[in-house]
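INTERNAL AUDIT FORM
Audit reference: QA-55
Scope: verify that the stored structure record matches its stored sequence.
Auditor: D.O.
Record contents follow.
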Amino acid sequence: MGWSLFSACSDDVGYRTEAALAPQATDGGSNLVDRFARDANDDGPAGGIDGGARDADDGLAGGIDGRSPDTTDDGLANGNDDGPRVGIDASPGDVDDGGPPNALDGGLSYADARGDAEAVDGPVAPVIDVYSLLDEMSDLERLAHPARQRFRTFLASSYDRSSATPAVSSDTPTGWYANDDRGNFYGAKVDASGSSVGVMLEVDGPGCITRIWSATPDGTVRIYLDYATTPTLEVSMGDLLSGQIAPFLPPFAGVTAGGGNLEFPIPFQKHVKITWDDSHGYYQVTYRIYEDPSTVVQSFDLASLDTSKLNLAKTRLLAPILPAGNIVNSQAVLTAASPELTIEASPAGEEVVALQVNPTSVDASSLRSSVLSLRFDGKETVRAPLGDFFGAGPGLLPHATLPLAVSAGGQLTARFVMPFATSAVVRIDAAAGLEATVTATHRAAVFDGGTYYFHAHWSARGPMSVRPFRDILLADLVGEGSYVGTFLAVGNSSTAWWGEGDEKVWVDDDTFPSLFGTGTEDYFGQGTCSPELYNHPFRAQTLAAGDGLVEGANGLFSMLRTHILDPIRFSTALQFDMELWHWDESAQVTFDNVSYFYLATSATDNLPLPTAQDFRLSPLGQ
C-alpha cells in the first residue's frame, strides 16, 4: 500500500540542487511532578481558547497513492457566519521564518544561503505570505536556526474537555486520561441558514493555519479571515482533507491510514475563525501565532494563487534538494577496527546537509543493535539504533519522507541539517560482522551564537504494563530550541488497540499544554486503527500489525512524523508527553522512540542516555 516518494524502492537518492529549480524562481514516566512544582498546578487552561486549552496535534498532509500533483484554481461557495469571537487573545508565540543574518566570514551565512534580501544589511523583515510559507515546507535548514519572526505553535482539537487537571496517573480513564475526544468545540455559531455550527478555532493574528486533520471528515468546513462575514473557504470537509479540491491537491492534502489531512499554509493578518457543522467529529487544527503583533502577514487569497509557484512547492516536497553552496562529500567505510568518520569545519563553520549509510547487514537484529553516534564539536547529540534513527524499525522498512528515508536496497538517508563549529564525528558501533559505507554531504556555513545543534534521543521502554493510565515522557528539554519529529516503534501483546493516548506538549511556562491531541494514531496523521502502510513528505507508517479493527492489533508497529512547517519552537523549555492508553488492561507493550530536536548551545536534554539494554528488539508480537 502507499506510494513511492523520492526513491524509496531503489538505491538512487535522486538529489537535485537549488540551482536546478532556479529558472522557476519564483517505563519512562512523565516528569509531571516536576512540572507541578514549576507551575503550581493550574486546573484551568493557560491562555487557552474560550475556556479550553490551547491544545495541539497534527495529522499531516495526505497520502497520495500515485496520484499526480496537479493544480488548478477553484471558485468556492460563500457563506455567512458573523457571531461573536471566541478566541485566544493575540497569544505570544515564537517561531519560524528564517535564521538570523550572519557575517559572511569564509562560509555561507544562513540568510545568504537562502538568498534573503536582508542577508547582510539588517533588519528588514520580509512580508510573510503563502509563498514564503510554502518555501518553509521544504526548507530543512530553517529548523537549525532561531526564527527571524518568532512564533508559537498551538493545537486546537476536540480533546476531551474533562482533561483539565494534570495527574501523574490514573486507574480509570477519567479526568486527565479521559477519552471522549469528539464533538468538543470552542463555542458555537449560527450560520446563514440558521443552523448551529461548532467553532474549531477562533484566534487573533498575525498567524497561520498549518494543518487540519480529521478521522471523521463529514459536513462543511468554513474558514473566515480577518473578521470577514463571508468565508474565504467553504467546502466539504471530506473533499478538502482527501485532496479533491484545488489547489489543495496531493501532496498538500489526502487520506493516510484512515486520517484525512490538509497540510497547506493559510496565513492571516488580523483574525481567523473556523467552523464545522459536524457536531460529533474528531478534529485537530495546528496553527502558529507570531509573537510581534506588528508582523506583516499577507492573508490567504484563493483567487490570487500563482499556479507555477504551487507547482514548484510540490516539486520541492516530492524530490529532495541540496542547499546552495560548495557541496563536499566525505566518505569512509566504517568497521570494528575503524568505526569513525571525522569532518573538519571551514574557518567560520560547517553543516552536514545529508548523511547516507549503506550497511552490509540489514536484518532487524543488526540494525537495532548497531549504534549510530554523532558528535558535534566534541559533544555527542545522537546515540540511537542505526536503523531506527532513520525513521523506521525494527529491520529494513523502506519509506521516504523529506528529512528521512530508507530504500529497499538498504540505503539509509537523513537530510536534517546538522551544523557545527569545528568538527563532526560519525561513529558506528556495529553488530558483529556489520560494516557500513558512510557518506556525509556538507558545506561551509557560518556557525554563530544563534545556531542550533541537531539532536536525536532514543528511548526504549518495556515490556511494561499499560496500567495505570499515564503519560510517557518523550522529550524533556531546557533552554531554547525546536522540536522537529517523532519516531515510534510499538510492540503490543494484545489484540486490543493500544493507541488511544493523546500527545501533550508543554512549551516554556505553560500551565496547560499548548498542544493537546486526540490520540496517538491521530498525531501521526492516521485514524481508525488502520494498518495501511504509506509514505508522505512529512510522515510514514512502515509497519502495522492487525486487520484495521480495534480487536486486531497484536504485533509490531512503526510510524514517523516530522514537524517541518509546524516546528514546536521553545524559548526556555519543552516537555513532550504521549499518553499510554490501551483498551486491554492486562496488556503489555514496548514503547520505543526517537525524538528529533534542535537545541541552542547552552540548552540541555534532561532524559537519561540509553544503555546497552536499550538496543534490544521488542519481544512482543514477533
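Auditor finding: record pair retrieved intact. The first strand starts at residue 16 and ends at 17.
Action required: none
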